[in-house]
Design brief:
globular, about 20% helix, 3 domains
Protein backbone atom coordinates (compact mmCIF):
# COMPACT_ATOMS: atom_id res chain seq x y z
CA UNK A 1 0.00 0.00 0.00
CA UNK A 2 1.34 3.43 -0.93
CA UNK A 3 1.38 5.98 1.87
CA UNK A 4 0.47 9.44 0.62
CA UNK A 5 3.35 11.87 0.26
CA UNK A 6 5.95 9.53 1.75
CA UNK A 7 7.37 7.45 -1.09
CA UNK A 8 9.89 8.23 -3.80
CA UNK A 9 10.24 5.70 -6.62
CA UNK A 10 13.31 5.59 -8.88
CA UNK A 11 12.83 4.88 -12.58
CA UNK A 12 14.60 1.53 -12.07
CA UNK A 13 12.02 0.51 -9.43
CA UNK A 14 13.96 1.24 -6.23
CA UNK A 15 11.85 2.79 -3.48
CA UNK A 16 12.81 5.31 -0.82
CA UNK A 17 10.50 5.63 2.19
CA UNK A 18 10.50 9.27 3.28
CA UNK A 19 8.42 8.88 6.45
CA UNK A 20 11.68 9.03 8.40
CA UNK A 21 15.08 10.55 7.71
CA UNK A 22 17.16 8.67 5.14
CA UNK A 23 20.78 7.57 5.44
CA UNK A 24 23.60 9.79 4.25
CA UNK A 25 24.50 7.72 1.18
CA UNK A 26 20.93 7.72 -0.15
CA UNK A 27 20.70 11.43 0.57
CA UNK A 28 23.96 12.03 -1.33
CA UNK A 29 22.70 9.96 -4.27
CA UNK A 30 19.51 12.04 -4.47
CA UNK A 31 21.45 15.29 -4.03
CA UNK A 32 23.73 14.36 -6.93
CA UNK A 33 20.75 14.23 -9.33
CA UNK A 34 20.02 17.96 -9.10
CA UNK A 35 19.65 19.34 -12.60
CA UNK A 36 19.18 15.85 -14.08
CA UNK A 37 16.01 14.36 -15.54
CA UNK A 38 13.30 16.00 -17.64
CA UNK A 39 9.51 16.13 -17.72
CA UNK A 40 9.49 13.52 -20.51
CA UNK A 41 12.26 11.40 -19.04
CA UNK A 42 12.28 11.76 -15.22
CA UNK A 43 14.72 9.88 -12.99
CA UNK A 44 12.11 9.31 -10.27
CA UNK A 45 8.40 9.48 -9.53
CA UNK A 46 6.10 10.50 -6.69
CA UNK A 47 4.63 7.48 -4.89
CA UNK A 48 1.33 9.30 -4.44
CA UNK A 49 0.44 10.70 -7.88
CA UNK A 50 3.02 8.82 -10.03
CA UNK A 51 4.09 12.10 -11.61
CA UNK A 52 7.76 12.66 -12.47
CA UNK A 53 9.75 14.66 -9.94
CA UNK A 54 13.20 16.23 -9.72
CA UNK A 55 15.36 16.99 -6.69
CA UNK A 56 16.02 20.50 -5.36
CA UNK A 57 17.46 21.99 -2.21
CA UNK A 58 14.99 23.50 0.22
CA UNK A 59 15.23 27.33 -0.19
CA UNK A 60 15.14 27.89 3.58
CA UNK A 61 17.39 24.98 4.60
CA UNK A 62 20.34 23.90 2.44
CA UNK A 63 20.63 20.70 4.49
CA UNK A 64 17.21 19.51 3.35
CA UNK A 65 16.01 18.38 -0.07
CA UNK A 66 12.59 18.06 -1.61
CA UNK A 67 11.20 16.27 -4.63
CA UNK A 68 9.51 18.86 -6.84
CA UNK A 69 6.83 17.79 -9.33
CA UNK A 70 7.43 18.60 -12.97
CA UNK A 71 3.67 19.17 -13.39
CA UNK A 72 1.80 21.47 -11.02
CA UNK A 73 -1.10 19.72 -9.31
CA UNK A 74 -2.78 19.01 -6.00
CA UNK A 75 -0.01 16.70 -4.75
CA UNK A 76 2.50 18.24 -2.33
CA UNK A 77 6.24 18.09 -2.97
CA UNK A 78 8.14 15.38 -1.10
CA UNK A 79 10.28 16.45 1.85
CA UNK A 80 13.59 14.56 2.15
CA UNK A 81 15.39 14.63 5.49
CA UNK A 82 18.88 13.27 6.17
CA UNK A 83 19.54 11.14 9.22
CA UNK A 84 22.43 11.75 11.57
CA UNK A 85 25.62 9.77 10.97
CA UNK A 86 25.45 6.23 12.33
CA UNK A 87 27.88 5.17 15.05
CA UNK A 88 29.77 2.93 12.62
CA UNK A 89 29.96 5.65 10.00
CA UNK A 90 31.15 8.22 12.52
CA UNK A 91 33.72 5.82 14.01
CA UNK A 92 35.28 5.11 10.61
CA UNK A 93 35.39 8.81 9.72
CA UNK A 94 37.00 9.69 13.05
CA UNK A 95 39.59 6.91 12.65
CA UNK A 96 40.66 8.34 9.27
CA UNK A 97 40.91 11.83 10.75
CA UNK A 98 42.94 10.58 13.74
CA UNK A 99 45.36 8.75 11.43
CA UNK A 100 45.94 11.94 9.45
CA UNK A 101 46.36 14.13 12.52
CA UNK A 102 48.89 11.67 13.98
CA UNK A 103 51.13 12.58 11.03
CA UNK A 104 50.64 16.32 11.47
CA UNK A 105 47.95 16.70 8.78
CA UNK A 106 44.75 18.66 9.15
CA UNK A 107 41.47 16.74 8.99
CA UNK A 108 37.97 18.21 8.80
CA UNK A 109 34.57 16.51 8.95
CA UNK A 110 31.52 16.99 6.73
CA UNK A 111 33.17 19.51 4.42
CA UNK A 112 30.83 21.21 1.97
CA UNK A 113 32.40 21.79 -1.44
CA UNK A 114 31.60 24.29 -4.14
CA UNK A 115 30.35 21.31 -6.16
CA UNK A 116 27.45 20.92 -3.69
CA UNK A 117 28.85 17.74 -2.17
CA UNK A 118 29.53 17.06 1.49
CA UNK A 119 32.68 14.99 1.98
CA UNK A 120 32.94 12.92 5.16
CA UNK A 121 36.61 13.75 5.83
CA UNK A 122 38.93 16.17 4.03
CA UNK A 123 42.64 15.80 4.77
CA UNK A 124 45.01 18.72 4.36
CA UNK A 125 42.34 20.52 2.30
CA UNK A 126 43.23 18.28 -0.68
CA UNK A 127 42.26 14.64 -0.14
CA UNK A 128 38.69 13.50 0.45
CA UNK A 129 37.57 10.31 2.17
CA UNK A 130 34.00 9.07 1.72
CA UNK A 131 32.85 6.43 4.21
CA UNK A 132 30.22 4.13 2.73
CA UNK A 133 28.01 1.55 4.44
CA UNK A 134 24.82 1.38 2.38
CA UNK A 135 24.16 0.14 -1.16
CA UNK A 136 25.33 3.16 -3.16
CA UNK A 137 25.20 2.76 -6.93
CA UNK A 138 28.29 3.18 -9.11
CA UNK A 139 26.70 6.08 -10.99
CA UNK A 140 26.02 8.02 -7.80
CA UNK A 141 29.58 7.47 -6.56
CA UNK A 142 31.03 8.55 -9.91
CA UNK A 143 28.94 11.74 -10.03
CA UNK A 144 29.72 12.63 -6.43
CA UNK A 145 33.45 12.01 -6.90
CA UNK A 146 33.51 14.05 -10.10
CA UNK A 147 31.79 17.01 -8.47
CA UNK A 148 34.11 16.93 -5.46
CA UNK A 149 37.23 16.78 -7.64
CA UNK A 150 36.00 19.50 -9.98
CA UNK A 151 35.46 21.61 -6.86
CA UNK A 152 39.16 21.32 -6.06
CA UNK A 153 39.96 18.06 -4.27
CA UNK A 154 43.00 16.32 -5.72
CA UNK A 155 41.63 12.84 -4.99
CA UNK A 156 38.68 11.18 -3.28
CA UNK A 157 39.00 7.70 -1.78
CA UNK A 158 35.94 5.64 -0.91
CA UNK A 159 36.20 3.41 2.17
CA UNK A 160 33.56 0.67 2.43
CA UNK A 161 32.54 -0.97 5.68
CA UNK A 162 33.26 -4.66 6.08
CA UNK A 163 29.81 -5.82 4.95
CA UNK A 164 28.96 -2.92 2.65
CA UNK A 165 28.26 -3.66 -1.00
CA UNK A 166 30.74 -2.02 -3.35
CA UNK A 167 28.86 -1.44 -6.58
CA UNK A 168 31.26 1.44 -7.20
CA UNK A 169 34.42 -0.71 -6.99
CA UNK A 170 36.59 -0.15 -10.05
CA UNK A 171 34.64 2.97 -11.01
CA UNK A 172 36.03 5.29 -8.33
CA UNK A 173 39.15 4.98 -6.13
CA UNK A 174 38.43 2.93 -3.04
CA UNK A 175 39.36 0.33 -0.45
CA UNK A 176 37.60 -1.75 2.20
CA UNK A 177 37.78 -1.48 5.99
CA UNK A 178 38.44 -5.02 7.20
CA UNK A 179 38.20 -5.30 10.97
CA UNK A 180 37.86 -3.88 14.49
CA UNK A 181 35.74 -0.75 13.92
CA UNK A 182 32.52 -2.56 13.01
CA UNK A 183 32.44 -4.56 16.27
CA UNK A 184 33.92 -2.18 18.85
CA UNK A 185 31.91 0.47 20.62
CA UNK A 186 34.98 2.62 21.13
CA UNK A 187 37.48 3.98 18.65
CA UNK A 188 39.93 1.25 17.49
CA UNK A 189 43.51 1.82 18.66
CA UNK A 190 45.81 3.60 16.19
CA UNK A 191 47.32 1.39 13.49
CA UNK A 192 44.99 -1.52 14.24
CA UNK A 193 42.59 -1.55 11.26
CA UNK A 194 43.54 -3.25 8.02
CA UNK A 195 42.24 -2.51 4.54
CA UNK A 196 42.23 -4.21 1.17
CA UNK A 197 41.83 -2.82 -2.32
CA UNK A 198 45.22 -1.13 -2.74
CA UNK A 199 47.53 -2.34 -5.47
CA UNK A 200 51.13 -2.34 -6.61
CA UNK A 201 53.10 -4.08 -9.37
CA UNK A 202 55.99 -6.52 -9.30
CA UNK A 203 58.24 -7.58 -12.16
CA UNK A 204 57.82 -11.11 -13.48
CA UNK A 205 59.27 -13.05 -16.40
CA UNK A 206 57.25 -12.73 -19.59
CA UNK A 207 56.63 -15.72 -21.83
CA UNK A 208 57.68 -13.43 -24.68
CA UNK A 209 61.01 -12.84 -23.04
CA UNK A 210 62.10 -10.04 -20.74
CA UNK A 211 60.01 -8.75 -17.86
CA UNK A 212 56.41 -7.63 -17.46
CA UNK A 213 54.45 -5.96 -14.62
CA UNK A 214 52.13 -8.21 -12.61
CA UNK A 215 49.42 -6.73 -10.32
CA UNK A 216 49.97 -7.46 -6.64
CA UNK A 217 47.09 -6.71 -4.21
CA UNK A 218 48.08 -5.15 -0.90
CA UNK A 219 46.66 -5.55 2.57
CA UNK A 220 47.65 -2.33 4.32
CA UNK A 221 46.66 -0.44 7.42
CA UNK A 222 43.94 2.15 6.91
CA UNK A 223 46.33 4.59 8.59
CA UNK A 224 48.89 3.99 5.84
CA UNK A 225 46.31 4.37 3.08
CA UNK A 226 45.28 7.77 4.46
CA UNK A 227 48.80 9.14 4.90
CA UNK A 228 50.12 7.75 1.62
CA UNK A 229 47.22 9.24 -0.35
CA UNK A 230 47.93 12.64 1.19
CA UNK A 231 51.68 12.27 0.49
CA UNK A 232 51.12 11.13 -3.10
CA UNK A 233 52.80 7.75 -2.62
CA UNK A 234 49.46 6.07 -3.37
CA UNK A 235 47.69 7.45 -6.43
CA UNK A 236 44.41 6.78 -8.23
CA UNK A 237 45.12 5.64 -11.80
CA UNK A 238 43.41 3.77 -14.62
CA UNK A 239 44.63 0.17 -14.96
CA UNK A 240 43.09 -1.65 -17.91
CA UNK A 241 40.00 0.56 -17.78
CA UNK A 242 39.54 0.06 -14.01
CA UNK A 243 40.17 2.72 -11.36
CA UNK A 244 42.75 1.54 -8.83
CA UNK A 245 44.66 3.04 -5.92
CA UNK A 246 48.24 2.06 -6.78
CA UNK A 247 51.46 2.57 -4.87
CA UNK A 248 53.73 5.10 -6.58
CA UNK A 249 56.70 2.74 -6.84
CA UNK A 250 54.44 0.21 -8.54
CA UNK A 251 53.32 2.85 -11.05
CA UNK A 252 56.95 3.68 -11.79
CA UNK A 253 57.82 0.00 -12.29
CA UNK A 254 54.86 -0.51 -14.63
CA UNK A 255 55.83 2.46 -16.77
CA UNK A 256 59.48 1.44 -16.90
CA UNK A 257 58.66 -2.11 -18.01
CA UNK A 258 55.99 -1.22 -20.57
CA UNK A 259 56.99 2.25 -21.73
CA UNK A 260 53.35 3.24 -21.22
CA UNK A 261 51.84 5.88 -18.97
CA UNK A 262 49.20 4.87 -16.41
CA UNK A 263 46.57 7.57 -16.80
CA UNK A 264 45.85 9.43 -13.54
CA UNK A 265 42.20 9.27 -12.52
CA UNK A 266 40.81 12.79 -12.65
CA UNK A 267 37.23 13.96 -12.99
CA UNK A 268 38.32 17.25 -14.56
CA UNK A 269 41.05 19.80 -14.04
CA UNK A 270 40.97 21.71 -10.76
CA UNK A 271 39.06 24.94 -11.22
CA UNK A 272 38.39 26.02 -7.63
CA UNK A 273 39.32 25.27 -4.05
CA UNK A 274 37.25 22.62 -2.34
CA UNK A 275 35.97 24.52 0.69
CA UNK A 276 33.02 26.75 -0.03
CA UNK A 277 34.28 29.23 2.58
CA UNK A 278 37.76 29.48 1.08
CA UNK A 279 38.84 32.58 -0.83
CA UNK A 280 38.60 32.33 -4.60
CA UNK A 281 41.68 30.87 -6.23
CA UNK A 282 42.24 31.23 -9.95
CA UNK A 283 43.68 28.17 -11.69
CA UNK A 284 46.48 29.17 -14.04
CA UNK A 285 47.03 26.41 -16.59
CA UNK A 286 50.61 26.27 -17.89
CA UNK A 287 50.92 27.14 -21.55
CA UNK A 288 52.94 25.23 -24.15
CA UNK A 289 55.12 27.36 -26.39
CA UNK A 290 54.89 26.39 -30.02
CA UNK A 291 57.92 25.66 -32.15
CA UNK A 292 59.94 28.66 -33.32
CA UNK A 293 59.11 30.79 -30.29
CA UNK A 294 55.51 31.49 -31.32
CA UNK A 295 52.83 32.44 -28.84
CA UNK A 296 51.92 29.77 -26.29
CA UNK A 297 49.12 27.41 -27.26
CA UNK A 298 46.00 27.19 -25.10
CA UNK A 299 45.57 24.15 -22.88
CA UNK A 300 42.66 22.60 -24.79
CA UNK A 301 42.24 19.09 -26.13
CA UNK A 302 43.44 18.83 -29.73
CA UNK A 303 41.10 16.01 -30.72
CA UNK A 304 38.75 17.27 -33.50
CA UNK A 305 35.48 18.57 -32.14
CA UNK A 306 36.46 18.27 -28.46
CA UNK A 307 37.86 21.50 -27.06
CA UNK A 308 37.72 20.35 -23.41
CA UNK A 309 40.53 21.39 -21.02
CA UNK A 310 43.60 19.27 -21.70
CA UNK A 311 47.17 18.68 -20.60
CA UNK A 312 50.44 17.68 -22.30
CA UNK A 313 50.53 14.08 -23.54
CA UNK A 314 53.79 12.11 -23.99
CA UNK A 315 56.39 14.67 -25.20
CA UNK A 316 54.18 17.69 -24.48
CA UNK A 317 53.56 18.50 -28.13
CA UNK A 318 49.94 17.32 -28.00
CA UNK A 319 47.29 18.44 -25.51
CA UNK A 320 44.52 15.94 -24.68
CA UNK A 321 41.66 15.76 -22.20
CA UNK A 322 41.51 12.77 -19.84
CA UNK A 323 39.13 10.58 -21.97
CA UNK A 324 41.16 11.12 -25.14
CA UNK A 325 44.42 10.53 -23.23
CA UNK A 326 43.05 7.14 -22.21
CA UNK A 327 42.06 6.45 -25.83
CA UNK A 328 45.58 7.21 -27.06
CA UNK A 329 47.00 4.97 -24.31
CA UNK A 330 44.87 2.01 -25.46
CA UNK A 331 45.77 2.59 -29.11
CA UNK A 332 49.47 2.74 -28.20
CA UNK A 333 49.27 -0.53 -26.29
CA UNK A 334 47.57 -2.27 -29.23
CA UNK A 335 50.07 -0.90 -31.76
CA UNK A 336 53.03 -2.09 -29.66
CA UNK A 337 51.37 -5.48 -29.07
CA UNK A 338 52.28 -5.46 -25.41
CA UNK A 339 50.74 -8.01 -23.01
CA UNK A 340 47.78 -6.85 -20.96
Amino acid sequence: MTIVGSLLIWADGRRVDLRSAIDQETYAELEATQGLGTRKNPLMFCGNCNDGIHIKHCPSDRNRLFGAHFTAGDCADLTIRKSVMTDEHKRMAEYHAAAARAQGLNADFEVTTTGRTRVDVVIDGRIGVEVQWSDLTAGAAIRRTARSMKAGLEAVGWCAGLYAKQAWAGNVPGYQWLDNGQVLREMPPPRSVRSRGLLTFRADRSWRGGWEPVPEPLTALVDEAVVRMAAGSIKPVMVGGVVQLVRADGIKLYEELTGLWLTPYTAGLVSARSLSSSPEVRCERPAVRAAGGAEPESGLCREPGCGEPGRPYENGALWLCVPHTWGHYKLGRKARQLPR
